[in-house]
Amino acid sequence: MTARCSSRTAASPRPTPDPNLVNAWGIAFNPTGFVWVNNQGTGKATLYDGNGVPQSLVVTVPGPAAGVPSNPSGIVFSGGAAKDLGGILEEVKAIRDGGGTGSIIGLDERVHAKIDGENCYGPAKLRMVEEWLAKSGLGRGHVRFYSDHASDAPVFEWADEAVAVNPHDKLARLARERGWAVEDWR
Questions:
Q1: Which residues pair with 36 in a beta bridge?
Q2: What are the pLDDT digits (tens) for 79-124?
Q3: Residue 58 Cα distances to 18, 138, 155, angstroms
Q4: Cβ 63 vs Cβ 44: under 8 Å
Q5: How far apart (Å, rounded) are the C-alpha atoms in residues 23 and 138?
Q6: Using the 8-state DSSP alphabet, how is residue 173 labeled?
Q7: Contact assessment for residue 46 and residue 27, using Cβ atoms and an 8 Å cutoff
């Protein structure tokens, strides 16, 4: 699957395609800066400005071993105190290895749309997130959760900050009732 990041501004009325944006599996919003997107299909992380325009900084995510390409399946933004590089790399490896998703890495070293265990949906998603955090030793920290579906209500409730993205009617109603932030990018 190839997706295109596009934006239209007065300076650039045509969509801005990004060849690195292939099978995006993670997005990290820095509340004071740019947006990072991990691209499972290209093994890269791309930086975008607030208009969705790709920036010159593109990072190749290291693979699990020398000469083995990566297939990143998530990304984390930490706005807290700086950590040593080793600690950050351990977190990135945990996320790369399917962090919390139960994804299956196939013989082709790509993340496949098959699951190992229960479906990551509804209350099961919250259980999986909590189990992954406990297993990883990362601790809960401050959690900002983004989703576009009402089935994620248990994780929205659990999170410190819940953000409903492009919500359909049921999720929009839940967000209003519970005071969750809403982002509509349509």
A1: 28, 47
A2: 555 444 445 555 555 544 544 445 555 556 555 555 556 777 789 8
A3: 11, 26, 31
A4: no
A5: 26
A6: H
A7: no
| Alpha-carbon span 144 to 177, nearest angstrom | 18
The token duo for 164 is 């409903």
pTM for the full predicted model = 0.44
Residue 73 identity: S
Q: Are the CB atoms for 90 and 84 separated by under 8 Å?
A: no
CA distances from 171 to 74, 123, 144, 166 (A): 23, 16, 17, 9
Q: What is the DSSP string of 55-93?
A: EEEEEEPP-SSTTPPP---------SS---HHHHHHHHH
Radius of gyration (C-alpha) of the chain in whole angstroms: 17
